[in-house]
Amino acid sequence: MFLLASVTIGTSVRAEEPLGRGKRWVRSHPFNTMALTIISKSFDPHEYKAANMTTVLAWKPNTGLLEEGASVGLPWHLNVRRRGLNKDGLTDQTKARLKNLHDNYSGCTGWIVWDEPKRSEMFIVAKAIQWLKETYPDTLVYSNAYPMGGQTPMRRAKMERYYGGELPEGGYSYEQYLRDFATIMKPDVIMYDAYIFRQSGETSNLFPTMMTGRKVAQERGVPCWSFVQSYADKLASRNSRTPSESDVRMQVFMHLTSGYTGIAYFTYEDQQGPAMVSNADRQLRPLYYHVARLNQEVLNVGQALRFLESTAVRYVPGSGNRVPEGVTAWQPGDGGVKQIKAITIEDAEPDDWKDVLVGFFTDDRGRRYFMLTNLWHDMDASSAQRALTVTLTLDRKVKMIGRLSRETGRPESLAVTGGKFRMTLPGGTGDLLRFGDAEFPGLGHDLSASYNDK
Length: 454
Prior knowledge:
Layout: H1 2-11, H2 21-27, E1 32-37, H3 45-50, E2 55-58, H4 63-71, E3 76-80, E4 85-86, E5 89-90, H5 92-104, E6 108-113, H6 119-135, E7 140-142, H7 160-163, H8 174-185, E8 190-193, H9 207-220, E9 224-229, H10 245-257, E10 262-266, H11 286-305, E11 309-316, E12 328-329, E13 340-345, E14 356-362, E15 368-374, E16 388-394, E17 400-404, E18 411-415, E19 420-425, E20 430-435
Parallel strand pairs: 1-2, 1-10, 2-3, 3-6, 6-7, 8-9, 9-10, 11-12
Antiparallel strand pairs: 4-5, 11-14, 13-16, 14-15, 15-20, 16-19, 17-18, 17-20
């Protein structure tokens, strides 16, 4: 009876709607944080785990990475590279290799097949994904898509690279690319990569890609994940800067606020340029420590986010700012949350990204939650240097707001006085809140016992 109660309270699985493989996996594992790694000589499993990574993302079948991750209790995902596939899907040699790795190195919980496939390649990837699902039914099987605009211009049209051949009449949109990605290959997760921080100090607008990924994932009933930037490109022509503390927090929390339930960092060591750990001498760079602190907060808030469904994402621009393309301005009543009458950013001095993102969620019982994230960030700026105070004007009947503490992972009850609630958020950082009580799903329950196969 106690176990049944734990199941009911911890997950409240929707009785009317079976969960797919991807959502089952997300709910039965800790919130997924990982960083792409290749080189075992620069990989210290203790340091990787201390960065609050929950999974080793091995981009090559380097058995040293798998062994070292297992030595500290970390599971692993392996990139199944395109050279191991042919027109029939996985080659027999690749199948034998994957079986050997799975059987001899404990901890396999997922496979990421190919990277940035064009539409013309998706039919091959689909066969590989289907074989892996059938052969390893308890693992997550997925791929990674291009971001919007994430390709070099081709001779006839930018979108040709998404398509991989002569474009159909009428062209080929990014939304159609992602929808084909989802429906042809049938991955357990919709995932993409986007590296948005420029050497000039500018930040690219990620919302069109992020919101399209969210839309397609919701159509398919699968989770959405993303790679985020944790490197500076060694090629000046690609123009990527090392993210500051406020930068990397902003990119991660904007995804959490939009309903994303898995974060991968590109990269851990210096694959494309300086990253978290130096290849040469294994020195930990400042970004490593920023990510370690950030990931602890992600894991704390992610306890509940794994069990929530994103229902709306809205934008509150600061003084002099506009709502970016791809996202909608907040209005009272959005997300079904009627208690919020106004959202005010107290600092009126204009600056880029001095804005707030609002995400709305429901759980399996229909209870509502919302997340506020301060998007203000800048190159070389810490989260403390980009803090914002936000005031919620509320229905005067509201006397308390529940908060899932990102610092401790424990629920808190916060008093509301006179219909006003003020909170200060560090740069790039968000809080998960709800009205009425401080009850959040997924807290403190044994994952193996608090999930079923519905």
